Structure formats: C-alpha cells, structure tokens
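User: My advisor, Dr. K., asked me to get a structural model of this assembly before our group meeting. I'm new to this, so sorry if the format is off. These are the inputs:
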Amino acid sequence: MRDIKVSLVGYGIVGHGVVDVLNRKKKMLRDMGLNLKLISVTDHTGTVMAEDGVDAEKILGERTLANLATTSMKGKEAISAIDSDLVVEVTPTNIVHGQPGLGHMEAALSSGKHVVTSNKGPLVVSYSRLKKLAEDNGVMMKFEATVGGTMPLISLVERTLVGNEIFGIRGIFNGTCNYILTRMTEEGIPYTHALSEAQDLGIAEADPSYDVEGVDTAGKVVILANSLFNMNIKYSDVDVTGITGVTPEALALAKKRGYAIKLIGDVPALTVRPTLVPLGSPIAVAGTLNSAAIYTDLSGTITVTGLGAGSIETASAILTDIVSIYRTKRIDAIF
Amino acid sequence: MRLSMDLELQDIPGQLLLALQPFSDNKANIISVVHHRDRKTPRGMIPVRFVVEMDRSKIEIVNSKLKESGISVVRAGEDRLIEAVSVVLVGHVLHSDLGDTVNRIDSTGFAEVMDVSLIMTGVDEPSSAYLKIRATGKAEIQKALAILREVGAEKKLLVIEPIEAEAV
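Assistant: The format is fine. Below is the predicted structure of the whole assembly, which you can bring to the meeting.
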C-alpha cells in the first residue's frame, strides 16, 4: 500500500466534487494499492488540515471553510508549508493573467509536488513555463479536466493513440453554448430566450459572456494546441466568434438542408466559430454534451463525447489524472 | 472534363451496348448511366442519360459514331460545377446588397450561387440566408469560401461554413 498525501486548493463546485469523489472511492483506490489521504483543503477563507485525512462528511455540508478552518494559511503559503505529495488546484479560472491558480501551481511544482488541475487559466497563460517547471522538479502536471470535462481527450491522445500522428482535433468544447443552440433549434426561440432558460437551469452564468463569446472554447483550443501539438501559442492567436449572432432562422435553414450549427473549436486551425455540422455526424451531439473528433494517420477519425462540466464529472477526470500519475510511476519502477 | 449527354435509343435489344461502344473506344470513363425505360418519347424511343469523364478532343468522334449507329444525341453539355458547399449567412443580408454578394461569387467564372433561401423577421432584425455554392473543383470551393469570408467581414455578416470532413 502506498500512502499519498493530497492537498486540495480551491473549494467551489469542483472542490466539493473532489472531496466527495475521493471519499466515495477510498476503498476502490485501496484495492488498487493507493491510500489517498486528503490532508488539507484550502479556500479563500483558510485551510482545514488533518494528518490522517480531512473528514469529508464534515466539510461537505459547508459552502466555504470559514467555520472549519484549522489555520488561516491560504494559497501559496499553505501549498509551501503543507507536506503533501500532490496538489489538486481547482480555484476559479482567469484566462487573462491566470491567477491565483498560476501562483499556486508554480509554488506546488517548484516544491516538488505533482499538480492535477481543472483550472484552464494558468495553462492558457503559461503552459510551457509550467511544463518546464514540472520537468525540472521531476514531477508531473496533469490537466485532463480542463478540456471537455469528463470526456477523455488528452489522455486518449497521449496514451491510447500514441504512435499516431494527430492531424487535428475539432469539437464542441462548451456545454452552455451547445445547450443554447440546441434549444434554439428545437423550439425556434431567439438567443436571448434560450440564454435565460439556461441561466434559470444553472447551465449558464449570470454573466454568460465567457461561454457565449467563445472565450472558454478558445482557452481549450490553446491548451490542446500547446499540450498535444507543441504549438506554443497564446490566447490572442485564436480567431474567435461566439454564438450571440446566431438566429433561430439560421438554425432552421441549416436544419432543412441537413445541418446543425455548433460552436466548433479547431486545432491546429486555431479557430472558434459557429459551424455547419452534418446532422448525422458523430460530433453533432445535443444538449450540454461535448464532443471531439480526433483526426489521425493510423486510426482514422476517432470521436469521443461526454459531459463537459459538472462537479462530480470534473472530479472524475481529476481522479483519473491522480491515479495515472502513480500508475506511470509504477511502470517506471518496473523498468 | 465531365460531360452529360442525353441520348435516345430504339426499343430493340442491344441498343445500350451499341451506345456504350464509342465511349469505350475513346477511353471515356463512364460515371453513370440512367436508363429511363418508363419514359418513352412520343416516337417510342428510350431516353438514356450518360455522365462521362473524357477528353474534350474526342467528343466529336463519339458524337459521329453514335449517329452512325442510329442513336440520336438530344443534348450534350459540360458538367462544369461538380463540387458544392452550403453556407449560412446572418446579418443584414438583403440590405447589404445580396445581389452584390452573389455577384462576387458568380463573377469568378469558377463558382456560382445556385440556391438562395432568405428568412427576414423584421425591418431592423438580422436576416438569415442559406446559400448553395457550386464550383468547378474542391480548390475553387475553398476560393469561393474565402471570397465570402471577405464579403462577410466587409458587410458585417456572420458566415457559417460547413465543418470540413477531413483535417487538412
């Protein structure tokens, strides 16, 4: 049995999901030979620490850690002070400067801790620097949850499709936009109407611009381009058009001719734009689903689809990343 | 070049084979043959449409051979525009001079707008249009799309193009 001390930084929707999933899967992980101990949880109010593992039942009922914090340490200070093997970074994302996640990830990697994250901002702003920092310190940085949520994409390309040349990846990487376009098509309602419906259901934020203007999708295009295509690009290199200009009439005209209109991110073209997708195409998924077509030389086109967001779903991708770090380590140890 | 030909055959056995021979002799690649037995002409002939890929210089020879065999060639025309693409435009499609937008494609000589459907919801509301563009080849389709993108930027139209089937 291998003991792994995990620190969680960020206690929002995804943070709650991570605590819940690590707790639920404790036995399964032990059966795999991994004793994952969540030794600290940190948010903007402070840190809960417990050497034998934080009591999940106790903290899951709280929205923030304000009433439970055992120390006032926060952010980078907590990351450096707490003796963990791995940091899960799930603070709110900022695609312009990457903070506070960027500072957190730098602190963790430079003190020799593996990092697993769902936070796009730091990777969009500073992927190559973080990757080098991880290599220099002999640790790993995993970020499957940043693109397509629970839908396996990065690990699929890096592991399962290894040996293939990847020509390109195109897909639907934002469930909010896909939901809005789906509802506009189904009901013939205008954009503003479908948006309010999505907001009522909690699918869209009060300020939806990050999703509907294509910013979120473009961030994912940057991450895929840098991590899978070694392109070393910035956000500003992506040509972005959101869905706010799409009308129900355009959707109806397209549908009559056998097409859906979807917000498609394209690597290596580095574009995000509403696009006609044939209705029978496997990437033309509806509702909040995400999808991606991976074009390869040996395997042809591979399509994946799955839920792009959600607390437990995102935590599931984080769990996969955590396990894969230690599985890789085991293989290294054998050879 | 690709050519489509409407021929009329007598309703007696062996006529289709007779019609095929001149194409075969002149190395034409037959793309399709549609034999309309159910649509006899008033003279009792059977119309057949051939689509063939063949050298331009051989057309006259094939034509005269067909006539020698008693087969009448009703029509022969070049199928120039063999590729097609669907595009949706959103914005002030009509008031930004739809005629000009279409003409910018048509005036290329290699691409034409073949179908336009327009939905207008109100005077100040953006309208939506479906366009089908045909062109002489795949590269020409890409050129036509580039022109449309340029026109779209100029006229503030959202140009929604189809996803390509394969990554380039």
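One thing worth pointing out at the meeting: Chain B touches chain A through 22 residues (CB under 8 Å).

User: Perfect, thanks a lot.
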